[in-house]
Amino acid sequence: MNTKLRACLGACAVGALSAGAAWAETTITVATVNNGDMIRMQGLMDDFNAQHPDIKVEWVTLEENVLRQRVTQDIATNGGQFDVMTIGTYEVPIWAGQDWLVPLTDMPEGYDADDFLPAIAGGLSKDGTLYAAPFYGESSMVMYRKDLMEKAGMEMPEAPTWDDIKKAAEAMTDKEAEVYGICLRGKAGWGENMAFLSAMANSYGARWFDEDWKAQFDQPEWKATLDTYMDLMTNYGPPGASTNGFNENLSLFQQGKCGMWIDATVAASFVTNPNDSSVADQVGFALAPDNGLGKRGNWLWAWSLGIPAGSDAKDAAKQFVAWATSKDYTALVASKEGWANVPPGTRTSLYENQEYLDAAPFAKMTLDSINSADPTAPTVDPVPYTGVQFVAIPEFAGIGTQVGQEFSAALAGQQTVEQALEKAQALTTDEMEAAGY
Amino acid sequence: MARASTPQKKAVATVAAWTIGLLIFFPILWTILTSFKTEADAIANPPKVLFFDWTLENYGVVQERSDYARYLWNSIVIAGGSTLLGLIVAIPAAWSMAFVPGKRTKDVLMWMLSTKMLPAVGVLYPIYLVMIRLGVLDTKGALIVVLMLINLPIIIWMLYTYFKEIPGEILEAARMDGASLREEILYILTPMAVPGIASTLLLNIILAWNEAFWTLNLTAAKAAPLTAFIASYSSPEGLFYAKLSAASTMAIAPILIMGWFSQKQLVRGLTFGAVK
């Protein structure tokens, strides 16, 4: 090789290297769930790319249960496959306790973390430090058919009791016309029937554990909860309810087969959408029921963005989290897709925005529901855990699902309420003892 | 044929075959039909079979939201690569077991099969940790090796069965003519076993294409194949059945078409050696 050619090649190599350095691009991988708000964000990435041309975002969208397993596996083994993870209020306190998450302390100027709703931020913090930024928050509430209530000559109170719910269910049920007074979750799983039943139990003053971590299924409050649930479902519920989850009930409600449905506030936008729902203009909303004990039977959940401690692009990930959960992002969605489509339930300022309140008829109900849930004091008596419809300990996913199976079996008529509670008490006690509590 | 077949018997057999065939095909047919419905029609009760507003909207949405071509390419590379690698390992292995069996050959065959009896999740964490250590998580190469190992017992068993049908004398004759071991396997055995190898290849491509456990657990953004593409459209909170069906149809279409064109080899391969 002659000297000139060598010099030329050398110059080229140096040039290529320096150009590469100038265009150094950080790629971050974001793991997320398949829901409307997350998909919408993927469509608005141009805005982020314009602000951060040096950060490339790759998406991994997975079904909720698959995602939970994948991100848990990755963070527990320090796999480093994801730089931003979409996680819920159940994971955050546990993972923060293990030092698996990066604390979100030095966020960019103008981020205004104090604007997050206190109930939501409380569930995502440990010792006052935020470990994940809420992307959207949800609670649960009563959705009911205004036309059926009117036909029955009844009116739904804004804040009903379980007695009101029973009376309304009885009045609206017309089994011959395949209209069932009430549809509730029956499918077994800690995030399925147990989310509903744990929240309902709070309104009856029941708790999962006493302050010494002793299981409480042998207490009368749980019996009262299940008796009401079984009474409602066997007399006024749809057939085969023990396999119904969110989607099954959504389908029944949209087809006009449910008088009432108590479930996630996110359902409001589905059932009022005239493209999908045959009862879109007949849906009314009310707070989740109570039993006069000062606690309502609604839950609290926030899909949030957290950064695993094993990420090798923490700064870029933080930029992304800050962008996605900022006030500017809310304004961006509003400008492109309208105020009704902004991710709800995270920032106080959103609920002070008249344009939003005008566009989203369910906004006030969502806010009231979220504010009435307290993850640190979910039920009447004090508890040693945080979480409204779950107990934020690693063992809960397993225990909750097993207990859910017992309650689902009772709903299917395979055992009595007493038997289900007895088994729940025994299995919870065993599991907790084995876990060293 | 040993038994007389009357027209009545033939008719019964035909009806039975069609009924069973349709029953088996029904879920796929329903998925394809649902992919052309609106979300509201997809959950309609009673279900709408043919009379609904046919729409291509779901395919449009799926196409817009996901990079189908990238998932497809990953699927092709992973399924094809693991099958080819498997054949390279399995042909010599099956040759030795079929033509120069030792005292323990049967035990080795059984032992290989026994690895299929272990639930995959039992070895997920060891494999995951090894991959982190090697830095090969979310790479196509790692998945090719894992899927090859998962399917290897089946490949070896199938090839072993085919090779057993080939008279050993032919190979012996080649050896007498001075063929080396490599030449014997490459130029004598392999051409004679082509139908068997072809059906093994096809079946393993299908198995690797549809493999969901490992492909979901060991990939993230870069190496994710079509199984991850489907999983991204499933949602426990929201009725997106029509879009999910469109994604599923797009994911199974290539393998369904391939199976259609090669069904003769597939059936021949699967029934090969059944009639002695």
UniProtKB/TrEMBL annotation, chain A:
Keyword match Mitochondrion: no
The keyword Ribonucleoprotein appears for this protein: no
Cellular-component GO terms for this entry: periplasmic space
Subcellular locations according to the entry: Periplasm
Signal sequence range: 1-24
Keywords: Signal
Principal subcellular localisation of the protein: periplasm
Gene3D superfamilies given in the database record: Periplasmic binding protein-like II
UniProt cross-references to InterPro entries, sorted A to Z: Bact_solute-bd_prot1 (IPR050490), SBP (IPR006059)
Top-rank taxon, per record: Bacteria
UniProt family annotation: Belongs to the bacterial solute-binding protein 1 family.
PANTHER family cross-referenced by the UniProt entry: ARABINOSE-BINDING PROTEIN-RELATED, DIACETYLCHITOBIOSE BINDING PROTEIN DASA
The protein's name in its UniProt record: Sugar ABC transporter substrate-binding protein
Gene name per UniProt: smoE
TrEMBL record, chain B:
Coiled coil: none
Alphabetical list of Gene3D superfamilies matching this protein: MetI-like (1.10.3720.10)
Domain of life: Bacteria
Gene Ontology CC terms, in alphabetical order: plasma membrane
Keywords attached to this entry: Cell membrane, Membrane, Transmembrane, Transmembrane helix, Transport
Residues passing through the membrane, by range: 12-33, 71-96, 117-136, 142-163, 184-209, 240-261
Protein name (Swiss-Prot/TrEMBL): Mannitol ABC transporter permease
GO biological process: transmembrane transport
Sequence ranges assigned to domain ABC transmembrane type-1 in this UniProt record: 72-262
Compartments (UniProt record): Cell membrane
Membrane topology: Multi-pass membrane protein
The species this protein was found in: Primorskyibacter flagellatus
Keyword Nucleus appears in the UniProt entry: no
SUPFAM superfamilies according to UniProt: MetI-like
Family: Belongs to the binding-protein-dependent transport system permease family.
